Amino acid sequence: MTAQPQPIHPQAARRITVTPATLTLPDGSSLTINDHVPTTPTDRRDAALHAQLYFYGGHIDTPTGPLGGYLGESGHLDGPRAASSLSRWVINQRRITPTGMALLTSPHPAYTTSAFRKLVEARTLMNLSARNLWLLNTHTNAGLATAHLTRAHVKHAHAIATTLADHIHTEIFNSHHNGHPSPAANNREHAVRVVLHADRALDTYEVMRALRAAGITTNARTWTFTIRRDLVRREAETRSIPRVFSTTHRGRRLYWNPQTLSKNAAIAGYDLAHP
Length: 275
What we know:
Helix content is 43%, strand content 19%. By secondary structure, the protein is of the alpha+beta class. It folds into 2 domains: 6-177, no CATH class; 187-273, Arc Repressor Mutant, subunit A. Strand 2 and strand 3 (30-34) form a beta hairpin. Helix 7 packs across helix 9 and helix 8 crosses helix 9 (223-236). The relative contact order is 0.13.
């Protein structure tokens, strides 16, 4: 069972302790957790090349020092694409004051496929971002990767991504998270992250207030309409993970995370907050 997440604050940040361990995943892969992280980008790259996927986590260099990190597929650090993206990778690594790292290695044949590794990377990124952790890399080719995999491989990748995100959140961050949604590519993804992080159903106005509290703004004339439209579209995109579900209740549109809440539990939580 995943530990109950706790919001991060200055005192909690100093209590985060990473305990070195080697964990075995359901498909036989090994996830090595270490509290000793190489200090230079070059050394971090060398360490990552010994694994199929890697994660460096800690605090990001902003005034509030939010929790976050960088998760990647090691194949991107070597080969024809590496030279063009290495400068950006180095900049992102320098933004992290690390508390720990995780390296995934596997003898499973699925990991020899670039599309499989990309899909695991993409789904793990989305899963961690939904937990209010700031991932410095959020752009992936998940859709393209899925198109090149069998249904069995897609299910396998999704399951491993969830397990990987659980372990990273627990082992690297002690189940802590930031108080506000992590930065997203657009307002739609911001709204999705608000819903995914809630422990009950939220109505459109509650999502809007959470976005404002996080300092997120919009040029939309009617923000509530935009939020409602974006979240309903996400629900319709059956291949999008994490999903958002919605329903009409007491004259309002409610949204919740189906991965953590049943419809009855989500609505019951909303009714408890709005007697």
